[in-house]
User: Fold this.
Amino acid sequence: MTHWLSKNLIRLYAVLAIFFILLPIFYTVAFSFNDAQKRNISWQGFTLTAWLNPCEPIGICEALGNSFKVGIPATILATVMGTMIAFALGRYNFRGRGTTNLLIFLPMATPEVVLGASLLSMFINIKVGSGLLPVIIAHTMFCVSFVVVTVKARVASLDPKLEEAARDLYASEWETFRRVTLPLVAPGIAAAALLSFALSFDDFIITNFNSGVVDTFPEYVWTAALRGVPPQANVIGTLMFIIALAFVFAGQVLSKRRLTK
Amino acid sequence: MALAHAEVGNKAHAPKKRAKRIAYFLLAPGLTWLLIFFAFPLINLAETSTKTPAPTFETGEFVQTFRFSNFVDAFVNNQEQFFRSFLYALIATLFALAIAYPLAYAIAFRSGPWKNLMLILVVAPFFTSFLLRTLAWKQILGAEGPVVSALQFLGILPPEATITATAFSVILGLTYNFLPFMTLPIYASLDRIDYRLLEASGDLYANGVTTFRKVTLPLSAPGVVAGTLLTFIPASGDYINAQLLGSPENYMIGNVINSRFFRVVDYPTAAALSFILMATILVLVVIYIRRLGTDELV
Assistant:
């Protein structure tokens, strides 16, 4: 018995850690079924009311819509620009590599309050003010670095022999890129896009500095937290969780199928 | 600070000049974006930090007077919050390391067929809202929650005591929210270790502890460095956990910057505080990286 325990202690520890990680998620999901009107704090009983009327609380679905309006363009812009930088860093020699790396790294090492405050003070100084456009700009900015890091890792792990083989078979540079390199890097780009959207969708601090009177979903939750978050917020949180999980599992299945082919 | 070794582009079959032009073309949009919306705002913030209220005393209007003592005032008036931010962030980083390292180790070496599932579970918090999760902790630790009831039942906690609105709950929130950022880099560096090295160490009569200390730990050091930085930096600037899980006595420097901006509309002080925070973090990071001798960050 003690032997078994000492052998599996680390597994036990890992299971406890995973439990710790999942506990608040379980709470979020469970309380979307709570029969509480506004102060959704203690368990009142099971109901599907919130799931059947997700848009009932004023402003919640509008805020969700704003999150998509920000997340989609920011993801596209950051993924395109970040992937381009990742290819430049992984494939070419050029002067200013150190500066480029620093410029990629610094936004990730800057606290969000500082990023938010500096952007707002610039937007105020140049009289742009706040709104959804400044938020899209800000989200694109902090997502680019994460895209570069994610895609660069994939570019670096490519076997150069595959591209050489394509060239030996008389593929042009462009054909090699389109038919060999890009498909091989695609999973990395997809992961980067997913990460960007998740970061954008969940961002509160930078958004709150720059959005002005418009609310995104996290801002809705923040404001609602003062009076009591309605169960509908948990419904939306749960739905997003399920959708994200579905994406991840789909990705896993796809990459497995590719391997077996 | 030397960042990332230059990977030699071995595909340079194309004439050199053309290759360079392609590289700059690829870099241009992203780097321009970062210059305009990251570097330039920071310069703007620097400019704001030495301003003083306009003579008209209109809210939100400031004039440039190069008052560098704004920095001294900002620091002196908020020493307590600065100290608390770094203390909380440090404790949370240590807790996160204590939870994440064994977890990452178990996933890398002991999870068998469950590896992918466990990795997905580690990043699962990313898929739910940060604020909803933090509010869930408020419920879990709250007066009506399971933790307080259990502790009171066991007689560990007196009947009227609470856990929320304490330093403990804020640090727990910070630990929890940045845990994936600690676990993933450590897992990545452990997963790259050739398991035969660990076996070789055993063959040379090293016991488990020695193998860990002399082989596993040094090989996973880059992951630990990356993980601790990715936890410590955002934690020291965070204000959500202190606001939702703490009381004003637990407020961190992020709370002060936020309220200077929005409630007091004192942009110069907020800007000065932001710079002090960033400078302190950069100094700490450089010292930390120098001591550990890693130069690969990106």
Q: What stands out?
A: Chain A touches chain B through 93 residues (CB under 8 Å). The mean pLDDT of chain A is 89. Chain A is about 80% helix and 0% strand.
